[in-house]
Fold this protein.
Amino acid sequence: MSLRLVFLAVCAFALLACGAAKGPELRVLGIDQRLGATPRHEVLFVQVTNPANRPMRLTKLEYTFASQGQDVSTGEVPLAREVPAGSAVILEVPLEVATDRELTLNGRLTATIDEIVRSFAVSAQIHPE
């Protein structure tokens, strides 16, 4: 009986510790317009900050761009980026919609922390210049 109680206490502590972990934060840094084979290709530079006290490995960003409540573009960026605890990295996200209006980036950022795969809801505002 006491072994079961210890097991339940350890499980409860683990759940509380996982729930208390703060997820990565996104911030839009800017947009770069590139000319190439396509008529116009823009790249959104997004800073991802790891506020946790453990390093994380970013593996994927699934995203949707929305404007005025309507989805206008979706995509996925495969990643292989290490983010040390308390540090930040910059990601490039393809932006294939007009940036003459305000957009919202909503997505799921997948990361590995202590060999555990986690998925975080992320969001950022894109303001036209």
